[in-house]
# Entry
Amino acid sequence: MKILIIEDEPKTAAFLKKGFSEEGDIADIAVNGVDGQHLAVTGNYDVIVLDVMLPQRDGWWVLQEIRSRRADQPVLLLTALDAVSQRVRGLKLGADDYLIKPFAFSELLARVHNLLRRSNVRSEDVLRYADLEIDSLRHKVWRAGDTISLAPQEYRLLAYLMRFPGEVLTRTRIAEQVWDMNFDGDSNVVDVAIRRLRRKVDDPYSSKLIHTLRGVGYVLETRD
# Structure
């Protein structure tokens, strides 16, 4: 998943980013309403975790801006305002869910997953291509019935390739989506990660799935 956290409290924002990263997800942080609104309406996020009490512009304004441009964007309000009237206000403005601080990260994660299931934004729980399979709920990978152990970064890379089978993905696009970074043409981070992934997913098998298009990028596909 790619998550936007709009939260001005540094410890809470860092806690959330760490929690999502440990789940293998990418999380961006905005610390005020203006920056958060800009990222929310211009970025491509699976879910937005939005605090209400923000500097510059509050979460109510951000939520209204999101809803005016992206009606189906999953948004979870995260705030210390626990009055029923505040929760009702958030839901009327278009929030999909509401969690009161303090909270357990496990509950937040469960709510995020439920939002994505309901909105059909989340990718399929199980991705399959040829004899390769990923269970995104359990973070497990199999090929030809063999269990393959992947590091979190390798898992994110493979899952991204499997969401676009047959489509050539440039190094820039992979870097942005898997590492959440701007690609430096002199960097070989994507190539190194692909090599490591191939050692586990392709090298032990006669049929290769990850292919290089020189000067362009990579594609997941079967070839004779």
Observations:
- The chain has two domains: 2-119, 126-220.
